[in-house]
Specification:
Layout lengths: L1 E11 L5 H10 L4 E5 L5 H5 L2 H22 L14 H25 L3 E11 L2 E6 L4 E11 L3 E3 L11 E2 L1 H4 L8 E5 L3 H13 L2 E6 L10 H13 L3 E4 L2 E8 L2 E7 L5 E6 L1 E4 L3 E3 L13 E2 L2 E2 L12 E3 L10 H15 L13 E3 L4 E6 L2 H6 L4 E7 L4 H5 L8 E7 L5 E8 L6 H9 L4 H6 L8 H12 L8
Parallel strand pairs: 1-2, 1-5, 2-3, 5-18, 7-14, 8-9, 8-14, 9-10
Antiparallel strand pairs: 3-4, 4-5, 6-15, 11-12, 12-13, 16-17, 19-20, 20-23, 21-22, 22-23
The structure holds nicotinamide-adenine-dinucleotide.
């Protein structure tokens, strides 16, 4: 049975870009339909940010219990903690389920119709949706918001299957791999590699660049490298994966080392985390007449594509491939469609890596600022001098907060931090940069004691030459 529908706004993709766009459209009184085949929440809620952070949290908790069982240095003791991977996966799935159901309720409250199905465009404004319950619906929309997201990159010589897995499958494992080889030492590779190490896997990382986390500067990644070394994660940097080999009932990763020689590592599972790419195939993009920007859909500062009334947001439109960027664009696009004057022009977009310890980067690093011709001053506050960090067993990992400001007017250009729990500082960092704060604004805002945020104020004081809790 085929049905026809019209609407003011059709959103394709129910991830962290698409669903906020649809909610905001609904709030603005626009007749809105959102279509997604894989359920609401997209990669972020179902296969990415949320399940991985649940997994990382559980791994850290288990590691702490094991540590406490071995050495009760806080006056606490536990005996023989056990890890049940199926139980962990079940708990994580429960968190995901709660959140995706919540998204459904929010859409309903905003009077948005959610259709579970796959949309294929015939032209820029018309698509056919094959629904999960076998219906075919033709939708013609006045406005279309494309939010189809991204998917994991597969290595052509080592596709997913058998013991070669991507992050989605890594989060579904019901048995802990004894030997895990991670290909790609970027965000996903290190976040998950560290979590598996905490749970007891032997972890090796094979990374093509000469360092892990190559998008961050050396000073910032040093504490993470220290953790990896202390916890016996084998790092093979400057090495390129070449393929998975099955021999004698065992799996090996073959890679080329820095000298061009082939090496191999035994693996129960090989986790490939070598990047993500936009989902541009299988939904009729080629019939829509849009311009492209490399692999991404080209947009302007209002997220408008080359076709009037067609907008695109999130991972589909380019770097950074971060959920919160997609969410910001989603809200903005809804308001643009409703006739509001909006422009996507953030000063910076914060990035957080949930490694051990965590990393936060907002704005320019000192080297990036210098490369742009800025004369800068910097201030650094070690978390070893933070009372709050010490009460949470932080500070001993080499963590710090670092601020980079323009020398002439003290406007803050970048803020970076590494340490336990520093991800929670990212909002204050982003706010400071977005509002054009100067060092004096940060130093002059009273920060609560005892919290890690004091480290931020101290970094500004350090840049001004008069920190209180470290020697100038
Ligand atoms: P990434 O780009 O962060 O890292 C991929 C790494 O793989 C790179 O360091 C690259 O040098 C390496 N590599 C590529 N080919 C290789 C080969 N043949 N052999 C060895 N190494 C190889 O990509 P990712 O970790 O897959 O993450 C994908 C995206 O997801 C990122 O763009 C990131 O923005 C996003 N993400 C964000 C978060 C977060 O915000 N906390 C977490 C996970 C993912």
């Amino acid at each position: 049975m085929s049905k026809s529908r019209t609407c003011q706004v059709l959103v394709v993709g129910g991830g962290p870009g698409g669903y906020p766009a649809a909610i905001r459209c609904g709030q603005l009184g626009l007749d809105t339909i959102i279509v997604d085949k894989d359920g609401l929440g997209g990669t972020c809620l179902n296969r990415g940010c949320i399940p991985s952070k649940a997994f990382i949290h559980a791994a850290s908790k288990y590691e702490e219990m094991v540590h406490t069982a071995e050495k009760s240095d806080m006056g606490l003791s536990v005996s023989a903690p056990k890890l049940d991977m199926a139980g962990l996966t079940g708990w994580k799935d429960g968190v995901v389920d709660k959140l995706t159901k919540g998204v459904g309720q929010l859409l309903k409250a905003a009077k948005v119709e959610a259709i579970s199905g796959w949309a294929t465009f015939r032209n820029a404004k018309t698509c056919t949706v094959q629904t999960e319950n076998g219906e075919t619906i033709e939708i013609t929309a006045e406005n279309v918001i494309l939010a189809t997201g991204s998917k994991e990159v597969e290595l052509p010589f080592m596709p997913f299957g058998g013991n070669v897995i991507g992050s989605t499958e890594a989060l579904e494992l019901t048995e802990l791999p004894k030997d895990l080889v991670v290909v790609g030492g970027g965000y996903i590779g290190l976040e998950l590699g560290i979590a598996f190490r905490k749970m007891g896997s032997n972890v090796s990382v094979v990374e093509a660049a000469d360092t892990v986390l190559p998008s961050y500067d050396k000073e910032l990644i040093r504490p993470v490298q220290m953790w990896l070394k202390k916890n016996k994660v084998a790092l093979h940097t400057g090495c390129k994966a070449k393929g998975a080999v099955e021999e004698g009932g065992e799996t090996f990763l073959e890679y080329e080392d820095g000298k061009g020689e082939t090496q191999r590592i035994k693996a129960d599972k090989i986790l490939v985390a070598v990047g993500r790419k936009p989902v541009t195939e299988g939904w009729g993009l080629e019939n829509m007449g849009l311009d492209m920007d490399g692999p991404f859909v080209k947009i302007d500062e209002q997220c408008r594509t080359a076709m009037r009334g067609v907008y695109a947001i999130g991972d589909l439109v380019g770097e950074p491939l971060l959920a919160h960027k997609g969410t910001a664009q989603g809200e903005l696009v809804a308001e643009v469609i409703a006739g509001h004057k909006r422009r996507f022009d953030p000063v910076s977009i914060a990035a957080v890596c949930f490694t051990e310890p965590e990393l936060v980067g907002v704005g320019l690093s000192p080297d990036e600022a210098k490369a742009k011709g800025e004369a800068i001053i910097t201030g650094k506050f070690p978390l070893a001098a933070s009372g709050r960090a010490l009460t949470m067993e932080g500070g001993a990992d080499g963590g710090f907060v670092r601020i980079t400001a323009r020398e002439s007017d003290h406007v803050v250009l970048g803020i970076h931090a590494v340490g336990k729990h520093v991800s929670e500082l990212s909002g204050e960092f982003a706010l400071a940069i977005e509002m054009g704060a100067r060092l004096e604004d940060i130093a002059g805002s009273i920060h609560v004691h005892p919290t890690l945020t004091e480290g931020f104020a101290e970094s500004a004081l350090a840049a001004l030459g008069h920190p209180i809790h470290i020697s100038a």
